[in-house]
Amino acid sequence: HVQLVESGGGLVQPGGSLTLSCVASGANLRHNYMAWFRQAPGKEREGIAVISLTTGSPVYADSVKGRFTFSQDDTAKNTVYLQMNSLKPEDTAVYYCAADGYGLLARRYNYWGQGTQVTVS
Fold first, then answer.
1. Distance between CA 96 and CA 46 in Å, rounded?
2. Digit-coded pLDDT (tens) for 22-42
3. CB under 8 Å to 84, separation ≥6 — which residues?
4. How many whole angstroms separate alpha carbon 83 and alpha carbon 86?
5. Distance from C-alpha of 18 to C-alpha of 85, rounded to nearest angstrom
6. Scanning 11, 62, 101, 111, which has the fewest C-beta atoms within 10 Å of its C-beta?
């Protein structure tokens, strides 16, 4: 069983920055992926970034490409970060960390964090 704990959400002005963190525990995720999703009120959960825990290579959705950076901790491989720059009001959502899956479709992931609210206003 995998547990995911996110942190780092909050309120930020447009153009500002936030960094989200996610720590995975409870299983060996070496050969899997971790991802960030977000869900705004009334909208479907959107995959925004995925990273291979083996290579550390991220892939981004077009909506965040060039503004968000998904990285893996150099020493704690089950810890990942989402650096969010140039935030826009449309980035407002609950952000979720996900593990044991692949790609950017929510239904492909087996484990989810509790979510952290990001509000850009």
1. 10
2. 998 886 655 588 999 999 999
3. 17, 18, 19, 20, 64, 67, 68, 91, 118
4. 10
5. 7
6. 62
Asked if 108 contacts 102 with a C-beta cutoff of 8 angstroms, the reply is yes
User: What integer best gives the mean pLDDT of the chain?
Assistant: 92
What is the structure's pLDDT at 96? 98
> Looking at residue 10, what is its pLDDT?
97
CB 118 within 8 A of CB 16: no
* Distance in angstroms (rounded) separating the CA atoms of residues 101 and 105: 9
CB of 120 closer than 8 Å to CB of 88: yes
Output the CA angle 39-43-46, nearest 5 degrees: 45
What's the token pair of residue 19?
A: 């960094």
* Structure tokens that stand for 37 in this block: 């999703």
Place of tokens 């550390």: 56
Q: What own/partner pairs with CB < 8 Å and gap ≥ 24 does 65-74 have?
A: 70/36
Question: Tokens 């491989």, residue?
Answer: 77
